[in-house]
Amino acid sequence: MYQIEYAALKYYNSVISEECMYIGMLFHNLTTGQRDFRYISNFSRFQAFDDEADVGFVKMYLKGIKTQIETNIFNYNNFSIAEYTRIYVNEFRFTNVMQIEVGEKEDYIENLTKLYLKFDFSKKKRLSNSEEKQYIKRILSTKNIEFSSSQVKGGFEEDVVFDYVIGNIAIKLFSFKGKNLKKIIPTAKHWSFTAYELKEKNIQVVFLYDSLTEDINHLNIIINILKINASVFQIQDGINYLLNQIA
User: Which letter, b or e, does each residue of 153-166 get, where b requires 16 or more Cβ atoms within 10 Å of its Cβ?
Assistant: First the structure.
């Protein structure tokens, strides 16, 4: 088995903005010393996110990180992913460093990159929904937590099915890709009311969602509805939130 540390690189369209896009993945194999940096290739999507960005500069910037990481500019044995990522504090910022144990033949770089940079891949090359859910579960399992049944009892003792239940945290995933978001609004209201009922049972509901949609207006309506009684995050940010909650 290999012990892996990794962090995702986020781009903010301003230093004070909370809006961001995941654009890269940094990996350090603690067992072998191997370091890798993967970054987006779909820069038209990046340009749509920030139409004022200098795409040529961003490409060179990301290529520069890859050159630094994957060559021996650092002492190979003493490289610290935590120290390296600490210097990124402006438009380019890394997430907290995370750890995962993987099999020696597992393509962890490809799989984790597909999880965090999902929309940089064609639909055929992405992780399936079941593979995505399994990887999220594996990441959360690094805290040695125990998952209970995915069902909890609602306000009328009915079964409510979530994707994961960890202690008193119930997690539901939403995928908005290719969906008519206007038609999802009633579903969002249903889940928001469910989250409200579960507060009485001391169950914290967390909604995670993917964000590739051009219907920003209805997406914001859905998020605002869900936020009334629960925590709501894009999948990648939600993973970090959950790891901190269950630390």
Answer: eeeeeeebebbbbb
